[in-house]
Amino acid sequence: MKTIVKLLFTTFFVLMLAHFMPGVHVDSFYTALIVAVVLALLNIFIKPILVLFTLPVTIFTLGLFLLVINAIIVMLCDHLIDGFTIIDFVHALIFSLVLSICQSIVSAFYSDK
């Protein structure tokens, strides 16, 4: 149940960011739901591999390179899904940063304590 709620919140955030950011476009709610699922799967399977390969750069930049990895994950999602478009890397970086902040806020309020 907790995973479904997080996916629905992520879907909502993707729709809102696409509405307010001029460089991001999502066709429909269904597309945003697919984006949320694909982002979750990419974060589970691909992100740890990228973090492992870029560990020296991440340590050298004191963890700031993880923002670049998040943007790469979002751009990979853009290439995998037809109805989801991000025009360039800067918009992907901003999108991933704002999405991460929104997800963190929801996780703080929706924790099982």
UniProtKB/TrEMBL annotation:
* Keyword Secreted part of the UniProt annotation: no
List where the protein spans the membrane: 7-23, 29-46, 53-77, 89-110
Keyword Heme included in the entry's annotation = no
Q: Name one Pfam family in it.
A: Phage_holin_4_2
Protein name from the UniProt record? Membrane protein
Q: Which InterPro entries match?
A: Phage_holin_4_2
PANTHER family reported in the protein's UniProt record: SLR0284 PROTEIN (PTHR37309)
User: What's in the keyword line of the UniProt record?
Assistant: Membrane, Transmembrane, Transmembrane helix
